[in-house]
Amino acid sequence: MISWRKHYRQTLIAIGLLLSTSASIYGQDGDPKNGEKLFKANCTACHALDKQVVGPPLKGVVERVKTEGGKDTEWLHKWIKNNKEVRDSGDKYANEIFEKYNKTEMQLFPNLSDKDIDDILAYTTNPPAPEEPKKAEGTATATDAAQAAPANNTTTSVVIISLLAIAALLVWILIKLRQLVKLGQSEDLAGLNETRVKSFSEIYAKYHYVGKGLIAILALLATYGIWNWIMWIGVYKGYKPEQPIYFSHKIHAGEQKIDCQLCHSSAKYGKVSEIPSMNVCMNCHRTISEYGANDYMEPGKDKAFYDGEIQKIYAATGWDPEKQQYTGKTQPVEWTRIHNMPDFVYFNHSQHVVAGEQAIINSFNKKNPNNKIDVVCKACHGKIDTMNVVQMANDFTMGWCIECHRTTEVDMNNGYNKEYFKNLHDKLKKQYPKDGGKITVDAIGGLECGKCHY
Fold first, then answer.
1. pLDDT of 395
2. Alpha helices of 92-141 — where are they, by DSSP H?
3. Residue 24: what pLDDT?
4. Alpha-carbon distance 271 to 346, whole Å?
5. C-alpha–C-alpha distance, residues 38 and 48, integer Å
6. Phi, psi for residue 320 in degrees, rounded to 5
7. 3-class SS of residue 162
8. Is the CB of residue 122 less than 8 Å from the CB of residue 28?
9. In sequence order, which ranges of 126-189 are alpha helices (DSSP H)?
């Protein structure tokens, strides 16, 4: 009896150890939901669950390392925290992985606790089912369409009835007009018809002063219309063409808070703010191969649309996402230019972005207290970080620029202006006493023709 109980107890202990080891091996003792958050925060730059990015796909990684290298979760803990240390120890499997994936150094994660790693492994082993994407405003499902069908039929019936009623009304009006014409031909009205004016010349002779006045007014209106049309040639405020690759500034600059100058780097130190090359896009999209933030979708567009636009970037740069390498077969992207100064106008971005940055921001916010800006770019280009499709936000006319130069106050206390205008400072204050001696751009040559035309 004692021997049987002892054997029974040993069996229970063995089963318990087996179950705990199995749970540990398969990463089930963690929290997959928390693991998903940790995975997205730490791993998605180089890994995806179901496909190779920079590193291998991580779905089922616990089972894979066990099958391929005979490793357990303890080894994975060491690898994730400091893979370099594991490789330097001479671990054969660790060095095989390093060689297989182009000797790409994996980031070290000493900050992750054992519980964090268990949660991540639980997520890679048993990822929770993805949430249903939020239906974008302006889109409809098949069920919605079916429900809307009776309403559409009712609307169609109302329209048809209305058209028939209008047709009946027109017929009635025609009948009444015919009756009036017959009445007009009666003998009672014959004498009255003889007294009426029979031609336009007789009307003009009778009311020629009124006619001349009307002609003069029409001539003035026509002249104003032609002048107004001429003055607005080349002004395209609100122009927002479709681009060959859809790019949402609202997502990148607004939601993701990417600095304008990360892509438009020459705007700060160059004359022209160039269109960034596709390689700039690939700095991020080499690892971001699909769209994942449903809340940022523009109404009428879905995940498939955004994923397709990322594939256009790959086609343009010749990137093979499966092999994670460039093929050398590139395609030019024919962007449609939106802002384009005439050839006879000189405009230097760096002069405004660097020298005039704070002055322009202060002036704009003073004139627009309810629509303040935090970046100098927005003073001319509008709130780009709210635009899915970029458009011209201002007139960009000569008068628009001059008005800005007349109202933007120059910071005479910064190092450059204080030294450059050292001898002119007091003279300018006396010459431009408006607003307590404040000096605007026009006071230092901002209205000279040669500043912008050469």
1. 92
2. 92-100, 114-125
3. 43
4. 9
5. 13
6. -100, 105
7. helix
8. yes
9. 142-184
Whether residue 408 contacts residue 399, with contact meaning beta carbons closer than 8 Å, is answered with no
**Non-local CB neighbours of 361 within 8 Å, separated by 6+ positions:** 373, 374, 375, 376, 379
* DSSP code for 127: P
Residue ranges, the chain, pLDDT below 50: 1-2, 4, 8, 12, 14-27, 135-146, 148
- Round to whole Å and give the CA distance between 120 and 49: 11
How far CA 238 is from CA of 23, 244, 394, 402, in Å, comes to: 60, 19, 8, 21
- What whole-number distance in Å separates Cα of residue 58 and Cα of residue 44? 10
For 99, the token pair is: 């060689």
Task: Using alpha carbons, list the distances in angstroms from residue 148 to 136, 137, 140, 141, 161.
Answer: 17, 16, 10, 11, 20
Structure pTM? Answer: 0.63
* Residue 164, pLDDT score: 87
The set of residues, in sequence order, having a beta carbon less than 8 Å from that of 54 and lying 6+ positions away, is: 45, 46, 47, 101, 104, 286, 287, 324
Locate 57 and state its tokens.
């796909």
For the chain, the first-to-last Cα distance in angstroms comes to 109
What would the 3-class secondary structure string for 35-58 be? HHHHHHHHCCCCCCCCCCCCCCCC
Q: Over the stretch 14-55, which tens digit does the pLDDT of each residue have?
A: 444 444 444 444 445 688 888 888 888 888 778 888 887 778
137: which 2 tokens?
Answer: 């405003």
Residues forming beta bridges with residue 320, ordered by sequence position: 325
Question: Which of 418, 415, 419, 438 is CA-nearest to residue 428?
Answer: 438
Residue-level pLDDT at 12: 46
440 bridge partner residues? 409
